[in-house]
Amino acid sequence: MLFRTLLPTLTFLSHMVSAHIQSPTEEIRNTLSLWSFYLDTGSYTSLPHIFTPNATMILPPPFETSTGIEAITSVLIKAAGNDTTVHALTWQVIEVGDGKREERAEAKTGYFRSGLYPAPNLPYILGRESSGVIQKLGSGNTHSLAVGDRVVALSSTTYAQYTAAPSQTVYKLPSSVSTSDAAAGLLQGLTALTLIREAHLVKSGDWVLVHAAAGGVGLLLIQLLKAVGAKVIATCSTPKIELVKSKGVDVVIDYSKDDFAPKVKEVTGGAGVVAVFDGVGKATFEKSFECVARKGSMVSYGNASGAVPPFTIARLSGKNIKLIRPSLFGYLATREEFETYTKELLEFIEQGKLDIKIHEIYPLKDAARAQEDLEGRRTTGKLLLKP
């Protein structure tokens, strides 16, 4: 399917899907180039390495301009570096294939990227999630979607006015959920939801510890945990304490001033927490492990501070602890799983139990400024790009 993107979320810094660094220890900033291209139709026998068959509608040369065709803007990463450049280029667009949909984008989201995952082959069009309106359907299984539907989608190369994605990861939005909230909340919201449903099934009354509670996943995670009745201990930096408190957590620990491990033991009467949700990694792993209660779970889902050092598995046996390294897409491998969790996530938003905080909506042409704001830690909540 092809859909018009209304608000893509800023994803070129995603630690999950858009890392553009070859080495975990190498710090590289990405050069972003804005490429102007034209919507056209054509045929193809093979796609270039910068695109994937299930997530793109763009073809390389020949660059034949079709008069009267709407111009499209896309953000493309060309090389590692610090500069940004604007280029003009004409692209052709392929017909959407079986089981795909074409979407006019409304919103796209962005994330912090620390370079802990291998880079894709460059050049590469950025983006991983978006919302918009379906413009065209492929001939395969469209899962009851229709042209004109407002949808939210997980797909590749979403930093453009139009994007294509497999219908398996497209979901029709209820009228009460805005395209901006949907795009801003989809990827990290699904991450948070599957953490508490799959990685460790959290029950009402459970004590849990959440690190980086003011971060993209963390802020949604603490709200979902409170919605299911958990008792939440959250860590964050001094400037974000009030924000975290406003989400109803039971205990907030300023990690820049206090050692969280003794505080967790004190709050839980020495028992520890039934689950630690740790997206920080290297800096917090050892003390987080100390905080896990007997038969509890250590859920390590991110490496914001660096990769966790080698771990001796025999250490788990002392308290029969479960160590889990979950992947969102491992929980969303089927259409049924994607539908189930997306439906539940949107219901939390509809019911007012999940507040999606949007820091700013940037014009797509200002993607580089959005990146600078994100890396400079000048933002709280999600950043959206508007084509």
From TrEMBL:
Q: Where is the signal peptide?
A: 1-19
SMART domains (alphabetical) = PKS_ER
Keyword field contains NADP: yes
Q: Name one GO molecular function term.
A: NADPH binding
Alphabetized, the UniProt keywords read: NADP, Oxidoreductase, Signal
Q: What cellular component GO annotations does this protein have? A: cytosol
Q: Which Gene3D superfamilies match?
A: 3.10.450.50, Medium-chain alcohol dehydrogenases, catalytic domain (3.90.180.10), NAD(P)-binding Rossmann-like Domain (3.40.50.720)
Q: Which residues form a coiled coil?
A: none
Chain ranges of the Enoyl reductase (ER) domain: 84-385
Q: Which InterPro entries match?
A: ADH-like_C, ADH-like_N, ER, GroES-like_sf, NAD(P)-bd_dom_sf, NTF2-like_dom_sf, QOR-like, Quin_OxRdtase/zeta-crystal_CS
Its name, as the record gives it, is: Probable quinone oxidoreductase
